Amino acid sequence: MFEVWDIPINATIFYTWIVMALLTVASLLITRNLRPDVPPNRWRTMLEVIVQGIQSQIEEVAPGPSRHLLYYVGTLFLFVAMSNLLLVVPGFEPPTASLSTTTALALSVLIAVPLFGITSQGLGGYLKTYLQPSFIMLPFNIISEFSRGISLAIRLYGNIMSGAVIAAILLSVAPFFFPVVMDVLGLLTGVIQAYIFAILATVYISSATAPPKPSQPEKEIP
Hints:
The protein is mostly helical and 222 residues long.
């Protein structure tokens, strides 16, 4: 699209910047008078409902302290949801429809999983999880970690792209009726995909931060 200091900026990066700017500006405007003596307005109430909803979902999946997990998973949810919801804006290309963006999001989850795990259990405790239930499972557990990231990226990319393809087909068949229907379905699908992505990230991080189960003593056969 253009260059910044001789660095080419494509559409994916440009629209990602737009989503980031919208989320940042909206957060600053809504929370600028966040004080106990100021009564909440409708925007602040809406933001509190969203944050509390995300936190309640995290607490159902990941028992224990969830404040730091809320910051990360909530950011993932809001970014993916905003990117998908802006699909109804004419000319906007959601960055989540690019494999580069979904891969970057999946890589961030792959990095977050061991970071949360090491923070919760320590380096030694987290590395021991790769040896459970036996050291023979080490290569399989490593492969499982990478397959999670690949599945996250492909799932999000495939769902967004399939929706765009279906919309293009329906528009070519009935261009005056299906746009409204596809806009509604696009909004619903975008929120669902953001929810699924955030929940999967929560499940992966929760499995890395969960304390290992104590081994049960074998029962003697009488």
